[in-house]
Amino acid sequence: MAQDVDFDEDDLRTLAGPRSFERGRGYVDAVTAMEVSDGWISATVHGTDAYEAELTLDDSHGLAGRCDCPFGAEGNFCKHLVALGLAVLAEPEAVPRQRGRARTRARELDAWLVALSRGELLALVREQVSGDRQLARRLELRAASARGDLSEVGARIRELLDTASFARYGYVEYADAPAYGEQASQAVSAITALTAAGRPADAMSLSREAMRLLSEAQDVIDDSDGHLDRVGAALAEAHLDACRAAHPDPGETARWLVGHLLSDLDDLTGIDPLDYAEVLGVPGSLRVRELAAAAWDRNRTGWAEKHLMERLAKAEGDVDGWIAVQAADLAPDGTTHLGVARELDTAGRAAEALRWAERGVEETPDDITPDLALIDYLCDRYLSAGRLSDAVALRRVQFTARRSLAAYRQLRTAAQAAGCWQAEREGALVRLRADAARQQSSYGGPVLVDALLDDGDVDAAWQAAAETGAHDRQWRALADQAQAVRPADALAVHLRLAEPLMRQTGNAVYEQLAGLLLSMRDCHHRLGTEDEFTAYLADLRAGHKRKRNLMRLLAQHGL
């Protein structure tokens, strides 16, 4: 693990869910035989049976766990894993001690093995092989690789990558994926051993076949934890090492590399063509560029073709080449234009960047709203250049297309900077009043009410709400802002909003109700009708005295 204990109870609760987390608390005392190593903590947890639980934690995948109980075998973070995690958290100081003991044992074992004679080591290995058929098969494969028995190695690699022995009804379940991944990793070891044995060309050929077989296996495996990704990455590394040792034909390697990168096989291996620069040399690298360009010409909208061309252009520092790839498949809302603009900014070509961003807005079809990030980018550029009227015009386009409170605020900011907010405000409010009249409101009520409230124009907001209707959230905001000058109107709103809360329960409801009561008290104080509030509160307390949490909360607020 990256640190001694790099998780907490919240992590366990998130992974397990509240029910399994609470059940796990009852099993903390059932955790025995805990072992700690770098990256994992394991233990036996006694429940209906004795289950082996293991927690793992690394920087890339975070906290995870495996348990061989029935629930854990289905891929769930079970109560036994929660119990193990809680046991660790109960004594965090024990983790570094146990890890230190594990490292000491490993060093002592290594020292003992080093001291054995060749004959003693052979006797030990033979003893282990005789009692462990899986170990025997692994060593047989390594031996075949070492002596260059390509037929035997190829046959065994195909067996190792075959899912048949793990599949149930033609599919490998989540619980069986780790075992398949461990078996598949033996194929990588065999290919690596072939290269070490002086057969890199054979290793290269077999690694390519193994990539194909692993890709086919991916379709019938629940690999949620990424076991196949790790095997695929290891296969890619083994292939690259074999190529470096074999010095293959650059043209043939370029053809294979481009074909692989444009196929589904690359989903697992993640091969970077730039890693092959030494293997390809200048001629092979040029051939890769030619083949990639030809493939892209045939399919300008293909994701794999586009990604490969982008990668090559970036590596060569070819900004114009990268832009040409983007220009062939522009998103209708201007997001691609924005990406190009930012790339040009990085290259120090600000004027071109601005023009690309402007094109993004200009070329957006009328029935599509330009990307908001693109509009923000352009407005920032306009404001920086003192083009205030252009920024206002752009914010007006945004507001017209998407009349929200956020768009209204952005229009106001731009127009205030340009000194033309009063005129812009009148036009914006005309549109919002038309929306409200047609009952084209957002989920939280008419934007018109929110906009007027945001402007601080409470009287106009109240009138709009009375004429066109408003959401309860808006009425609450109106009453809170108006109660100093319109206490009677505000009190009526507070009373109406409190009524349905009386029939509900829960601490969140009680908090809302207490807030409304405080506002009512203020309104009555302003109206000089404190006695009415006292009577109202007494009736409320009498009618809801069994709601102990509510009574306690009212007392805390002095009600």
Q: Could you describe the 3D structure shown?
A:
This protein has 559 residues and is mainly alpha-helical. 69% of the residues lie in helices and 5% in strands. It has helices at 9-16, 18-25, 70-73, 79-90, 94-115, 118-131, 133-146, 150-161, 177-196, 200-218, 227-246, 250-261, 266-269, 277-298, 303-315, 319-327, 335-346, 350-362, 372-384, 388-401, 405-418, 421-437, 447-454, 458-468, 472-482, 487-501, 507-527, 530-543, 548-556, and strands at 31-37, 40-46, 50-58, 62-67. It has a 4-stranded antiparallel sheet. Helix 6 crosses helix 7, helix 23 runs antiparallel to helix 24 (458-468) and helix 27 (507-527) crosses helix 29. The chain is flat. The protein starts with 8 loop residues before the first helix and ends with a helix.
